[in-house]
Amino acid sequence: MDHRADQPAQEPDSSSPPWVLRDYALIADGERGAVLDPRGRIVWLCAPRWHDDAVFSALIGGPGHFTVGPVDPRHVWGGYYEEGTLIRVNRWLTSDCVIECREALAMPARTDRLVLLRRMRAVRGAPRLRLVLDVRPGFGTGRMADPRRVDGVWTAGAPGMRMRLTGAPDAVWRPGEGLVGEFPLREGASHDLVLELSEGPGTEPLDADALWRATEREWQRAVPDCSRLVAPRDARHAYAVLRGLTSVSGGMVAADTTSLPERANSGRNYDYRFAWLRDQCYAGLAVAAHGPHPLVDDAVRFVAERILEDGDKARPAYTVDGRPVGGDRSLRLPGYPGGTDHIGNDAGDQFQLDTFGEALQLFAAAAAHDRLTGDAERAASVAVDVVERQWLRPDAGLWELEDRWWTHSRLSVVCGLRRMAQVLPRGAGQRLDDLAEAVLRETRRRCLRPDGRWRRAADDDGPEAALLVPMARGCAFGDDGGAATRAYIESRLAEDGYLYRFEHPGEPLGEAEGAFLLCGFTMALATHRLGDRVGAFRWFERTRAACGPPGLFAEEYDVRQRQLRGNLPQAFVHATLLESAVRLAGVSALP
Question: How far is the CA of 108 from the CAs of 10, 47, 115, 395, in angstroms?
Fold first, then answer.
């Protein structure tokens, strides 16, 4: 569905009041993700894929949710992920009952069909549970019609979507509410709900036991052992998040959500349900540091395909099936508190030079593991050609700002060229080394201060956390002052152990935006590269503490209020956590 901005504004869904971002959890299968609140409400789900319209949009004030929870309003919540998976176990404690709800999107996943599993169990006592299922396609503009119950299975449909639900034969269909019902559980008993949403009529059996077994096997196969790493449980969870955000196409979305504000009422609300090539490279490099796992192949394949197809016109972001991202537009929904609703992203049309440098680093890492495909080798050659033609051109940079001569972008391509030259046969890499030297020579002339510290840009002498990225990758630039740059960034952009991106003129740190968690983990990596192991661990542990109870990270962190800000979960934060856990443990498979 194509939801247009001329739709009338809708009233907030009062049945699903919002929570602070740190309390939300995620289940995902690679093709889409569902956001759960502590009360058992699934308040966000796009179907059939990440970039498609939401069928549950209560998170941003729209209609649609799937609620299962205790009838007793006096309860407290908890929960956990089964290790190495995105199988979530929600847990509720009432005055006389303990209830668990095991939740997952079934795997292996299909692009045209999702299956959502919810298994309730009465751990203690005999609770009564409430069910509400209100599927609202098109960000709430559509409704499921023609509801029927046949042999205990509910079916309904809307244009382009069919629904089946098992496990609620006694529920009733109420116009405007969807399926509503209550059911008891005796102590020790469990009860399954299986929801299928598909583009065509569902014909496959919805066997809960078989679906759970297949999902468990897929997670066991997908996520490697991380026991040798620093913070092994969090590292493995980070890998599971990256796997959950990665499609069968190889594309990894930057985040599951849209429009969650980075700063209240500031207009900084973006749609991150797309695959950023740079973010994909960060994830691929992080995983490659641990080993030649399938997510490396996914990243290499997706990035190579985009560069081969588009060359100089390669976009920063694509849908996970490789299509262009539409421009920013409004949904006319109330939005998450402090935010306004948006879908699409104008960054899809920017030129970001550093993306090509990161891609070359990714291809070099794949080659080090003997995982460089023929397509990737050709894409690397195209990327080198693009750098050769475009490196003098101003670009939007890592933070997607105005076009300028950003220092970080040039250092990223120098790093990528050198890394790629190292894995090519002797002689074949000379062109890359020569180009790297030319880029570095001009970047030194424009951006290196006499005291050895890198400027933010050719026309900007300020501190810039993006300059930590080449250091984190172990890219040395002769006698240039990496240590001086790192120290200057820390002195100007750090607060209470967290790191900000850059300074906003006239505003103190923390007023204009939150600390950037990507920057904190990158600082840990850069500090470690410079030989300060204790300092690196301090940065790592402080930044690692910024997640909520489900262990998910957003892009920003409000240091004063200790709250997450922005879309959830942010893939590149989880990627740099994983890479930090590998490198601080001293077990990296890459230099």
Answer: 36, 16, 10, 39
Give CA angle at 319 (351, 330), nearest 5°.
85
Under a CB-based contact definition with an 8 Å cutoff, are residues 164 and 151 in contact?
Answer: no
Check residue 454 and report its DSSP letter: B
pLDDT in tens, 176-185: 899 999 999 9
Of 500, 504, 436, nearest in space to 466 by CA: 500
Q: Which stretches of the chain score pLDDT less than 50? A: 1-9
3-class DSSP assignment, residue 112:
coil
Residues 142, 98: Cα–Cα separation, whole Å: 37
Indicate the burial class of 588 (C-beta count within 10 angstroms; 0-12, 13-18, 19 or more): middle
Q: How far apart are CA 49 and CA 179, in angstroms?
A: 24
Determine the residue type at 514: G
**pTM > 0.85: yes or no:** yes
C-alpha distance from residue 299 to each of 270, 275, 277, 574 (Å): 23, 10, 9, 15
- Residue 198 CB: number of other CB atoms within 10 A? 20
CA atoms within 13 Å, Cβ hemisphere of 414? 24
460 token code pair: 């900007």
Q: 193 Cβ partners below 8 Å, 6+ apart? A: 68, 117, 118, 119, 120, 131, 165, 166, 167, 168
CA distances from 310 to 131, 283, 314, 315, 425 (A): 48, 22, 5, 8, 27
- Helix 407-423 crosses helix 374-390 at what angle (to 10 degrees)? 140
Query: How many angstroms separate the CA atoms of 513 and 208, rounded?
Result: 45
Torsion of CA 102, 211, 110, 163, to 10 degrees: -80
Q: Are 564 and 207 within 8 A, CB to CB?
A: no
- DSSP state at residue 223: S
Element holding 536 (H helix, E strand): helix 533-544
